[in-house]
Specification:
Blueprint lengths: L2 H18 L8 H23 L10 H27 L1
Helix pairs in contact: 1-2, 1-3, 2-3
């Protein structure tokens, strides 16, 4: 699976992560989408590193989507921590 597929998956994973982690984010929808794309890429990379698979299993496999959603949730949580601290300082 190529980088374009991971970007598309990341876009959708970012939306799903936002639904699973509701709340007010310091950025708008564009920031959330970018975090989702980066999270999808992070999830794909973590799948390669941790599980030793080339690109998870494929676009329509559940493991691919789970990795992308978890990566997006990790980045969204980190973004909320960092941006929240800057806003209160």
């Amino acid at each position: 699976m190529g980088i374009i597929a991971w970007i598309f998956i990341g876009l959708l994973a970012g939306i799903i992560a936002k639904v699973l982690m509701p709340g007010k984010d310091p950025g708008g929808i564009v920031v959330t989408i970018l975090i989702g794309i980066a999270g999808g890429l992070l999830g794909g990379w973590l799948g390669k590193v941790i599980f030793g698979v080339e690109s998870i299993d494929g676009f329509f496999e559940i493991s691919t989507w789970i990795a992308a959603i978890i990566g997006s949730m990790i980045l969204l949580a980190l973004y909320r921590l960092v941006a929240g601290k800057r806003r209160h300082a």
